[in-house]
Write a sequence for this structure.
């Protein structure tokens, strides 16, 4: 198997992830039932988030996201999770979620995945 960088697996994603707010415009995210999260990057099929809530790999979660006045809720499965920061009073986890269905903002009327244009 060929790898891009030494020790790293090749990128198997079928859809480009958007890591800049100017691309995805997601203002807030929450892992139900109310654990705030920050979107690191997102695509139609998944998201990488940071939260103070521990995410268990293999577990099902619901992610509520807001983009202006639009809201969406997507179910998904936690693919991986790791600790990224530890402070005396909290721990920050970074978790990857694979969605069960595409995030509607990144799908056109035919159901095909699109990439939003930066305005």
């Amino acid at each position: 198997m060929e790898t891009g960088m030494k020790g790293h697996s090749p990128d198997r994603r079928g859809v480009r992830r958007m890591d800049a707010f100017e691309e995805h415009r997601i203002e807030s995210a929450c892992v139900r039932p109310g654990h705030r999260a920050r979107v690191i990057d997102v695509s139609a099929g998944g998201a990488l988030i940071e939260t103070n809530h521990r995410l268990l790999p293999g577990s099902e979660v619901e992610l509520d996201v807001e983009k202006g006045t639009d809201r969406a809720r997507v179910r998904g499965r936690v693919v991986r999770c790791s600790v990224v920061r530890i402070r005396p009073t909290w721990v920050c986890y970074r978790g990857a979620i694979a969605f069960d269905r595409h995030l509607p903002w990144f799908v056109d009327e035919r159901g095909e995945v699109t990439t939003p244009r930066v305005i």
DSSP finds one helix and six strands in the chain. The domain at 21-106 is CATH 2.40.10.220 (Thrombin, subunit H). The chain has one domain: 21-106.
